[in-house]
Amino acid sequence: FQSESTQSEISHNGGGGWAPERTDRLRWLQVDLRERVEVTAVATQGRFGSPDWVTSYMLLYSDTGRAWKQFRQEDNIGTFPGNTNSDGTVHHKLSHSIRTRFLRFLPVDWSPGGWMGLRVEVYGCAYKSDVADFNGRSSLLYRFNQKSTSTVKDVISLRFKSQRADGVLVHGEGQRGDYITLELHKGRLSLHINLDDAKMHPSSGHVSVFLGSLLDDQHWHSVLIERFNKQINFTVDRLTKHVRTGGLDDSLEVDYELSFGGIPLPGKPGTFLRKNFHGCMENLYYNGVNIIDLAKRRKPQIYSVGNVTFTCSEPQLVSATFLSSSSSFLSLPLDAATETLSVTFQFQTWNREGMLLSAWLRRESERLLLLLVHGQLRLTHHRSALQSQALSDGQWHTVSISMGGFQVSLSVDDKPPSTMQLKDIAQPGRSLVIGGCPSVLTNQGCRNPTMAYQGCMRSVIINNQPINFNLVQQGLLGNYSKLQFDICGIRDRCLPNYCEHDGECSQSWNTFFCDCSGTGYTGATCHNSIFEPSCEAHRLTGSASGFFSIDPDGSGPLKSTVVYCNITDDKVWTVVNHNSTEMVRVQGSSLQKPHVMKFNYSASLEQLRTLVSKSEQCQQEVVYLCRKSRLFNTWDGTPLSWWLDRAGERRTYWGGFLPGVQQCACSLDENCIDMNHFCNCDADRSSWENDTGVLSYKEHLPVTEILIGDTNRSGSEAIYRVGSLHCYGDRFLWNAASFYQESSYLHFPTLQAELSVDTSLYFKTTAPSGVFLEHLGTKDFIRVELSASTNLSTTLYQHKCGIKMVKVPHIHVASVASLSGKSSFSELCRGTASRQRGFLGCIRSLNINGMTLDLEERAKMTPGVSSGCPGHCSSQNSLCHNRGKCIEKSSGYVCDCTHSAYGGPNCKKEVSVSFESGSSVTYTFQEPFSVMRNHSRQSSAIFAQSSNSRESIAFSFLTTQTPAMLLTVNTYHQQYMAIILAHNGSLQIWYRLNRDKEPDIFTPMSLNLANGELHRVQIHREGRDMYVQIDKDTNLKYSLSTDKELITIRSLTLGKVTGRAGVDEEVLQAGSRGFIGCLSSVQFNHLAPLKAAILNRGSSLVNVLGNLVESNCGELADKSSSRSFRGKKLTNAAQSDSAVIGGLIAAVVLITLCALGVMTRFLYRHRHERTRQMASVKEKDHQPRPELRYRAELDLHSAMRDSRKEYFI
């Protein structure tokens, strides 16, 4: 090899090998292989007998020794691990071979106790190729032996390099409209193919594929196109896309010839329809034919247009890379005698911000700045500015700046220049800076407005003099910092696109970003679904029945779909509809001309397959009515009708879950009308018969097609309907395992984590620490653990060359923990297989990359681990609300809302009823009893024994009528309590606990509550003390005259009450008027009378008078407020004629307010002093309320069995 590193030498004084001088800025070792060879491996050692070696390095390669490219492994890792001593050999086999003449070893890190030292060896073999050079006005035409050729299989392979971003590489077309075109467009390769007749099918057979990026970098790129019929494989530099063409035809018909390098205009050699290719091609093959070899040998099949040569001319464009966005710069001197300034250069970047150029002018404090602002060029001088279009697109752009006299002009690419007029003559100073401001010039006012330029630059010309980067590199011209010469280090970080689920990728120089808008996913790479995985999960969030989006495979490749969730008290059904759920009448069909109906579901078959597999049970009803229409041939059993399952397989059973048995539901139930047949229809009667059945074998559902074939006889007819797909349960949501030993763990197969990993799980534990999850590899591992010091943490260990992170890992409690990276782990352990402390507790619903692991099945065969996770109801989470009782099940829990005024799966759905005039609900207690002496299991679980007299009442109401009876309770001892609305709409609470004394009457607020708005009332009495809360802003405490209890309650009535002795006149009047409006969620102690009236109509305990209609008070309140708002607008409009009177009144009011202001200030001071005096008294009065203590008792009771709370990560 030959070292070309300036001021470097191979030392023989004490050790053999290469080592640069410590003052050398060009620290690399370059190897000249004399000709292009295929390099397959490299090996390194340190300097012999010395403390000098390189611990990591980059490998660069070049055909010319000027334009270099960094070698990267398959996962874009750009550095190689080096040596740890001077004598050991570290060998690296390249992930893909490179064909090159020059190699450059660029040290990144070296011996901590010594210096850089290298001995290298390169492995490979000879490489020969046929090369053709196209100058932008030339092409090669490969002519067929016949007028046209038609192929069903094509293979085109080539390698190319170019410095132009556009140009046609391959083109062929036929008269009927077939064509194939491979072209370079903005540095990307695009393949266009059409196989159909363009006149008959204008667009059905066309397909376009785009691949690659930054391919105009003067380096070789490989292309392979493989087509077989409609299937196309398109490969560029080891990246492959697989597509299929549309249309009807499979063959490609090309007339006369294929052109390489351009599309020549027929009859005019040398003229082209599109931009032709400018660069080199090698090893160009079409269906096994070496095109360049034929051209070199001047074979008649090849016709050359223009000047095509067979050696590759190398352009002398040399690039430099500005590496740092804060400190990269290139400072160049200017001729002091020059009165004008012209600067031209080409740049390439992804960054939207940065300073490209700064030039000092002779006038003090004046500078000419060229900035990138939001991706656009901005040329500024004082307050004047010129601006261009967006240029931060990774393409090469040419910029020209000219300054002379009173003008400054800016030109970008081929656009006309923009000119800026100056007030004074501008003359350039002694230097200009490309990139950021050097730190030594900070005192002179040079500061980066945003960031320094970070990107590539080439072809810098100042005042018509090209800048020689070699002189700059050797320190003979100007000054620089953080620049890399002879290489453009730009990378397309969006290729491959790490943004999943159609997320849109954008990038800067150092990183990429994913826009997940509208994808249904979130996270750094749009990996995590924003939707729940099932209807069962929606139930856990408290949702009621309705249409919801679910994502059955979570972060997997399938998108979300909309289903109907029928959330009942005992089961949650997922309903997926299709295009034909109505009854269909069939006549005149036979096996030769059958009736066929295909079913298109609202979800794809892949989504349905995932949904069905995750469900506990699925079913689909098939209604089938027949008259002289058989399902099976009665002679030989041949099916006359059948249906197709989701895999397209024919099925001939019509009920149940036993596939392969040709029978109907009546056979399973043993009640067919003719026991000689397995289906009612096979009796072949002229009367209507029924063979309706429910299909429940999951692996066959849903039904995708039905075929009816026996309705062509006289009087023969069939009617059928295939219902929606119904599934219930989530097999994996409650899939859990309990760990009782620290040494126990569940082992699962290898996890292949490509670009990202997401892991989610529920857990609960009382242990302060333990490992949840461990992904173990040869050198890498990911561990998620609970730590007593840090609560919850994730540990990700990466061997330097073994794992490549595309985004930083993160973990969230109560949301999905996303770990992004590329690894291949040898094993996946739930718990820990290492020496870390194991996890004690429960884990359920462990999901990794959209796949839920079956913990229960593994736990059955693992010591120290058991299936399931008991104690869902005993956790501290509020699973059932509003006094609903949580009941444990084998898979999860259900809420018993019997003693709650609410309904729904979590006892959160309000139960509302609209009362009309004369309507009432009376709940009669089963036998005389005292509320506090009822020792049933239910009451003893609810009521504490701290008081002998207690009532807890809650309800919501909406009305516009007064007076009104809301609720009244009476006893066998002529006691009662009543809640009414008085004539003025105020709420009144009446208590008559002693029939010999006057009743206690309380009016919590004087406001009119009969205003058409929804109000919530809560009353709690504890002995003499009564607490009242109205809506959210009124909380009051009252004292009754006695602490007697309501003895032996007779009944509770909502609405109208008639003829009751011992009731006061005002209460009697309100009772006779009843209640007109909406009552909701009525609770009296442990009873829910309104709910009982709806669910137990006809019961002897519930008496309903008048018409009661289930309603929704909340919706009625919204409508009422809307009408009220519109009415106010009309009132204001009607008063517009009184503007003058209003003005006079306003003046009087203003004077009055001024007088009141003085009085208010005095009264406020007096009240403030009084409030301070009363504060201590109120603190004593407002001790914790009994109902709060009551709730605390319930919480304590529910937590006693198991204090473990369940978390989701």
Architecture overview:
It contains 12 helices and 87 strands. The two termini are 57 Å apart. It is mainly beta. Strand 12 and strand 13 form a beta hairpin. The longest helix has 43 residues, at 1139-1181. Strands 43, 44, 45, 46, 48, 51, 52, 54 and 55 form a 9-stranded antiparallel β-sheet that branches. Strands 9, 11, 16, 17, 18, 20, 21 and 23 form an 8-stranded antiparallel β-sheet that branches. Strands 24, 26, 31, 32, 33, 35, 36 and 38 form an 8-stranded antiparallel β-sheet that branches. This is Contactin associated protein-like 5b.
Task: Give the N-terminus to C-terminus distance in angstroms.
Answer: 57 Å
> How large is the share of residues in beta strands?
35-45%
Radius of gyration: 42 Å
Number of separate strands: 87
Helix run count: 12
Instruction: List the uncertain runs.
Output: 1-14, 267-271, 792-806, 808-828, 928-947, 1123-1203
- What is the subunit organization of this protein? single chain
Taking the sheet with the most strands, its summary is: 9 strands, antiparallel
Assign the structural class, choosing from mainly alpha, mainly beta, alpha/beta, alpha+beta, or little secondary structure.
Answer: mainly beta
Spatial shape? extended
Mean of the pLDDT scores? Answer: 80
* Residues in helices, as a percent range: 10-25%
